[in-house]
Task: inverse folding
């Protein structure tokens, strides 16, 4: 049985399957895997965002090191 299906009993006595919603998880850096400081509650783009490039994919330290490697 999967984790996102729960059996519920209706008032009529029938047992039906209900799907549960997945909880929102925070983003992680693609290189080092550290947790990024983003808005965890919403999965939409309406929350606060950082204005630097690749802010949703890389942490500031990994972004800085990758830019330095490209400049060399």
Result:
């Amino acid at each position: 049985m999967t984790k996102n299906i729960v059996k519920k009993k209706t008032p009529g006595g029938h047992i039906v399957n209900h799907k549960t919603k997945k909880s929102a998880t925070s983003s992680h850096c693609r290189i080092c895997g550290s947790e990024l400081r983003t808005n965890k509650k919403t999965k939409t783009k309406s929350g606060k965002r950082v204005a630097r490039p690749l802010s949703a994919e890389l942490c500031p330290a990994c972004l800085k090191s990758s830019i330095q490697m490209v400049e060399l």
